[in-house]
Amino acid sequence: MTESPPRAWAEIDLSALLHNLAVARKLSGKEVMAVIKAGAYGHGLEETARALDDCGLPFLGVANAGEARRVARAGIKTTPYILGATLPAERAEIAVNGWTPCLCSLDEIAHFNQLGRAKPISAHLALDTGMGRGGFLPDQIPEALVAIKSSPGIKLTGIGSHLPVADEDETFTRQQIALYDKIATTIPQDHSPFHIHISNSAGLMKYRSVTSNLVRPGLLLYGISPFPDEQKQLKPVMSLKTRISVINELPKGHGVSYGRTLLTRDTKAAVLGIGYGDGYPRSLSEKGTKVLINGTLCPLLGRVTMDQIIVDVTELSKCQPGDEAILFGADLLVSDLALKAGSIPWELLTQITPRVERRYL
User: Fold this and answer.
1) Sequence ranges of the chain with CATH classification 3.20.20.10
2) Residue numbers annotated as active site
3) Comparing C-alpha atoms, which of 10, 22, 14, 12 is closest to residue 233?
4) What architecture (CATH level 2) is domain 238-360?
5) CATH-assigned architecture of domain 14-223
6) Which string of b and e fits 62-101 if b means at least 16 CB within 10 Å?
7) pLDDT along the chain (361 residues), means of 10
8) Is the CA virtual torsion 63, 69, 74, 78 positive or negative?
């Protein structure tokens, strides 16, 4: 039996991904850990990892052991790096597979030391320089270093921290990086290579750490800049698309969608096969949101429903069922859509559901 095409799909341009990686390298002048957590920001974990695997990266940043396992089972050679504290039940799997954890507590140091008795575990020390989400505060670092020094099961091969407001507060971020650099000069580098990292996408685009030799871009890799004026040098990787299923001729005053938004004129209303069940936010309803059909921006009518939306195609001279509609992509940025939704591009990308087929170009 012939399978019908999906109503909604996401086209993933892997050449754009590699372009953005080259931009990250050029802007930072440092090695790159590609952050691929949360299904590579909705782009597909395994497929994105495969595209990056031969790019000479020291690490692929994942959120937990489950994501690291998926990367390993896909045959990826690049080492998974666990971004954040580990659960006790995850640590044995991390140790036996040679994945790199970041140490956020004395309990983790003690446990990984036990697990690394037969073969020492390569790990990084997490420093809390302002994020408040994990890692050792500056006055706790000496105690952590003493614990690591007395732990033969651990090889300290790096340190890392995180920037909470690099795209919002320049003054604080510069102070934070200065503190981080000061601390970094006090950390013994007993193993080589020794990776020092703090910069996310915004950090590598706008700031410089004098001690860091590694950056951790996420959003930038997927072609969206945290700074709108820098967007032109990046290529969006994902384009979210659907098709027109039917076009209805509706009279002025007729209601549209749940809540009955009333039409102010006779309208050609196109029904598109996508909704919040696919990850297209309901919060885009009645915000002046538009979609791109046949090169023309068409306004969203009424509320987003679970499986469908309705758009005004009255101004289109040519339009028929089956025509493609672009929800976001290179010509309609997800970051602009996020502003209308009262959200952020990270959230919109990662909430695209599995019902939306990913097609890799």
Assistant:
1) 14-223
2) 37, 258
3) 22
4) Beta Barrel (2.40)
5) Alpha-Beta Barrel (3.20)
6) bebbebbbbbbeeebebbbbbbbbbeeebbebbbeeebbb
7) 90 98 98 98 98 98 98 98 97 98 98 96 97 95 97 98 97 97 96 97 97 98 96 97 97 97 97 98 96 97 98 94 97 96 97 97 94
8) positive
